[in-house]
Amino acid sequence: MGLFATYLLIYIFVGQEMLNYFPLLILFAFATPFISLMMSKATVKRAYNIRMIGDGGVSTEKEKLVVDTITLLSQKLGLQKLPEIGVYPL
Fold first, then answer.
1. Within a 10 A sphere around the Cβ of 71, how many other Cβ atoms?
2. Are residues 40 and 2 in the same domain?
């Protein structure tokens, strides 16, 4: 119903020539959230100045304890890949 209403509104207000762009608009509408989702992790890391510690970036004993604990828990859960571990300054 919503797709038909959008199609009809484009036809009424813009005309027949813009209906040629309708499939492109639909593709854009569905692709944009996925692109945003893919960019969100890098954006959050940059915004909060997160330092990754999972791959040998451990500098203190507390960080080593966190990495060891998460490694142990992920092995117990049977995860194939270790989750990303990061810290951010307070």
1. 15
2. yes
| Contact by Cβ (8 Å): 57, 71 | no
Q: Tell me how far apart the alpha carbons of residues 7 and 21 are, in angstroms, rounded to a whole number.
A: 11
Do 61 and 31 belong to one domain? no
pLDDT digit string (tens) for 67-76? 999 999 999 9
Cα 10 from Cα 14, distance rounded (Å):
5
How many domains does the structure of the chain reveal? 2
40-87: pLDDT as tens digits:
999 999 999 999 997 777 889 999 999 999 999 999 999 999 999 999
Give DSSP secondary structure letters for 28-82. Answer: HHHHHHHHHHHHHHHHHHHHTT-EE-SSS---SHHHHHHHHHHHHHHHHHT-SSP
Give the span between the Cα atoms of 83 and 79, in whole angstroms: 9
